[in-house]
Structures are given as C-alpha cells and as structure tokens.
Specification:
155 residues; alpha+beta; 14% strand
C-alpha cells in the first residue's frame, strides 16, 4: 500500500523560528547546540529546502519539535481474555510498558477469526496487528489509561 506524505515546510520553518525566539536563542546559539553553522540556521529559517535531513532533525530536536517515541514489541506473550473478548499484548516505549489489545470483533472481521481460536488468529497476524497498535500509539489515539485498543473500525 503506497501512501503519500505531505510536509508543510513553511509551517515547520515558521514554528522553528518562533520556538527559537521564545527560547531566547540566537541563530548562533541554536547552531552551536544543533552542531551546525550559523549560516545553515539562517538558510533553514529562510525556507531553503536544500538542507540535509540530519541537519533539520538536529535543529528540530534542539527546539523540542521531534517526537522521539518508539513502540516495540519484544514480549511475545499474549493471551485472549474471553470475558472482555480481546487479545491482550504489550509494547514498550523505552522503560514504559504500553498495554495493547485487539477486539475479538476486529479479529473476526479483518483476520478471518470467526469460529476460530482467537489467540491463534492473533498470533498468525501479529505483525500487522502490532503495526496498527504502533500507528495508533504514535498518533495519540490511545484510551484514557494510555493503552491501545484496536477495534474493527480502525482497520
């Protein structure tokens, strides 16, 4: 599945300039902190697009504009809770454990789980399900307790 991503470059540059100013950083100081030259900061703030991505991420990182969250699934343990009708699994974001679940209905509707062992269906489709959990987590589409619940309408 091919997706198009759009970047609003002028909005990123403008936000970066505003953050630099609100943090009372000169272009020179921002350059020092980001490990780039003052002329590079000036070119970036002028909207120049021919700048290395690593340079841009260094600048945005210093300004607190990067989302550094990562959700990984190192724990292979999962189980199906028949009372709640969900398959439960866990992700990790650094030291933080993120509880994740997919509804039995989603397993039925999107993974052929009708009349099958839901845990086996989950395990057979784990990679795709984890991908969806990661997408929801990074988009801040989490439950009030910070957990991720994948429902049939999410897929």
């Amino acid at each position: 599945m091919e997706r198009q991503f759009r970047i609003n470059w002028s909005a990123i540059v403008e936000e970066a300039k505003q953050r630099r100013k609100s943090q009372k950083l000169t272009q020179q100081r921002l350059g020092d902190l980001a490990g780039v030259s003052t002329p590079t900061i000036s070119h970036f703030e002028g909207g120049e697009r021919d700048i290395q991505l690593s340079t841009v991420t260094n600048i945005l990182g210093v300004l607190g504009m990067l989302d550094e969250r990562v959700l990984v699934f190192n724990d292979s343990h999962a189980h199906y809770d028949p009372m709640r009708m969900v398959a439960l699994f866990k992700g990790q974001d650094g030291d933080k454990t993120i509880p994740c679940a997919i509804s039995g209905e989603a397993l039925d509707d999107h993974f052929g789980g009708d009349n099958k062992d839901k845990l086996k269906v989950f395990k057979a489709n784990r990679e795709r399900i984890e991908h969806e959990a990661r997408r929801k987590y990074l988009a801040d589409l989490v439950e009030s307790d910070g957990s991720v619940l994948i429902k049939t309408m999410d897929l």
